[in-house]
Amino acid sequence: MELETLETTTTTTDFLPLNGTDHIEFYVGNAKQSAYYYQSAWGYKFVAYSGPETGVRDRASYVLEQGKIRLVLTTAINPESEIAKHHVLHGDGVRFLSLWVDDATKSFEETVKRGAKPYMEPTRFEDENGYVIISAIHTYGDTIHKFVERSNYNGPFLPGFAKPAYAMDVTPVGLKYVDHCVGNVELGQMDNWVKFYEDVMGFKLLLTFDDKDISTEYSALMSKVVSNGNGYVKFPINEPAAGKKKSQIEEYIEFYKGSGVQHIAVEVHDILETVAELRRRGIEFLYVPDTYYEDVLDRVGHINEDIKALQALNILIDRDEEGYLLQIFTKPVEDRPTVFYEIIQRHGAKSFGKGNFKALFESIEREQAVRGNL
Ligand code: FE2
Fold first, then answer.
1. Residues 72 and 129 in one domain
2. Is there a domain that residue 337 lies in?
3. pTM of the predicted model as reported, rounded to 2 decimal places
4. From the CA of 105, how far away is ligand 1's center (Å)?
5. Quick check: is 12 in a domain?
6. The domain spanning residue 347 has which CATH number?
7. Which domain covers residue 62, as residue numbers?
8. Quick check: 227 and 233 in contact, CB under 8 A?
9. How far is the CA of 207 from the centre of ligand 1 (A)?
10. How far is the centre of ligand 1, averaged over its atoms, from the C-alpha of 212 (Å)?
11. Partner of 135 for a Cys bridge, out of 108, 128, 248, 345, CB 3.0 to 4.6 A?
């Protein structure tokens, strides 16, 4: 494993300064019901809506917030729309990984100048709450990066969105912010997309995992992590590697019908509390065998949490040079074996749980075998 120190931006000019993730927009089959899932199970608050009732004819969008995380769930109202076509092809999946910027025009110009394929020229949207500028470029698969400039806007989300007419009472589960978003790309494409993030978006290569790090009896994957200048936005990129049977990345690509967002990792205050509550609410997590916990403390050393409590919830532990982390992965959150979530609590560690990959992938393979996809 190669660990490079992230350069700070004090000596070099960051041509694409990012304030963080603005929102993640999914195209889904039934946004009304997905929104209920994210409210009741995950404790997100429904804060804004756009659809036929607000004068939008072709779609309905539900905006959900918890901590600094903002999800948008959008569904097609008619079968001709590109939203419906996206859903037929991919199932529920991430269409926009939107980034919060101070200058959406410059973000567009700087990235397009360096080779980004434009999706939307800088465009001004306004209503009685002010205005925003949004531009967008293509990334892997049918995924789009929007650049959202919102310093002159104080409405509930974006122009055209209204406060919801109703909102259920929700109990948050302690989700704080998006730690990283992972993309799965097709065989042989990982380095091209790493180069895209380096050359076009000014990201730096942070970590590399090869198939020696991440392989089991059956499958393997390669992964490289890129990060923007201030480290607020981190995108690991995975590609399948040769194994005896189909890798989890190939399974994703087969069912998503191409490259796309594989998982979204969310930082929490207290992973024991969050995961216990999510389990009570019916969220399913990957199973970790008891044998994992037999020698895990020999590998990671002292941790503050009670190992029995972590074991009872199937939470994984890893350590790097700077500290340790606790993490757990949900099963896919739709019927296709595609997008899932990671819950992570960092105690200084800046890495991604390499020490857990083998235990984790063996667990994923058990699930693949049950689905008949191994
Ligand atoms: Fe992750």
1. yes
2. yes
3. 0.93
4. 31
5. no
6. 3.10.180.10
7. 20-149
8. yes
9. 13
10. 18
11. 108
